[in-house]
Amino acid sequence: MKISIGHLYPKLLNLYGDMGNIITITKRCEWRGITVEYDPIGTGDTIKEHDLYFIGGGQDKQQQEVADELYKNKDFLLAERDCNAVFLGICGGYQLFGHYYQPFYGEKLRGISLIDAYTVAGKKRFIGNVTVETEFLTPSTLVGFENHSGLTYLHGETKPLGKIMVGNGNNGEDKTEGARYKNVFGTYLHGSLLPKNPAFADYLIELALEKRYGHKIKLQNLNDDLEINTHNSLVGKAY
Ligand code: GLN
What we know:
Order of helices and strands: EHEEHHEHEEEEEEEEHH
Strand content: 25-35%
Bound molecules: glutamine
């Protein structure tokens, strides 16, 4: 078996070890004999079809460059979403999955509307550890690190990834973190996110395999003692 990963604009958006998410998916596939095709996508490139797309976080300046590029590929990426491709966007990338991001200074950046959400920069920066309680993972928690001033608000069929136990998440008001619509996932959790949340990594891999092969595939278990210990040591931790 194999999956293909399209990494959107890694040279521009890659903060706090976002690349670790790609490494985690790749290793967890390889350990099970699943081949991974990795395609880093740069500005000006024509985007090919993939099972899973990843985009990281970054500063407003890099986000601006990426926003224009992404917008040129909006129709293609929306069609990919509707074919059940898996998307994972972190922080700045997550913000661009919505309709727009309004920075504190300057013009609104157009998003690609993969999810029904918008983001507006707030006056405060949210920095610190986050614990989220989800309803779709076992163990149910997600842990990570946030650093953003953007406040994200979800609408319609776009639902949060989970409920904030520690930290601020989407906007610091409604106790939600991240977003999901179809197989599009967005989150403020850097860290890297996936090395210490192996259940989420496997969840995404299973969806990517299902997209490629058209039926559900259950992954074999791995020895995750180290990953689970790391995860557990961060659950509920504020600093
Ligand atoms: N510029 C965005 C914000 O501060 C994204 C930051 C990030 O990706 N870490 O809200």
